[in-house]
Write a structure and sequence with these properties.
Helices cover about 50% and strands about 0% of the residues. By secondary structure, it is mainly alpha-helical.
């Protein structure tokens, strides 16, 4: 939240178009995922290697609660 308040775009992308939401969902960080979604993170962005969304990454990493929250 502090970074977004400081002006960092919540949907900023890394090298392969992964966002903070992708990373948090893949790692199972439910609190972070909820905060990013509350800050209007775009859950439809696909990373560029396999074209996965944050929900896809949560699902393949067995984070079903996060997957359901994003979907």
């Amino acid at each position: 939240r502090d970074l977004v308040t400081a002006g960092i775009e919540v949907n900023s992308v890394m090298l392969q178009r992964e966002t903070a939401l992708h990373m948090a969902a893949a790692k199972g960080h439910e609190t972070v995922v909820n905060e990013l979604l509350n800050l209007n993170a775009d859950s439809t962005i696909q990373e560029s290697k396999y074209f996965l969304t944050a929900a896809n990454l949560a699902y393949v990493n067995n984070h079903k609660t996060i997957c359901n929250r994003i979907c």
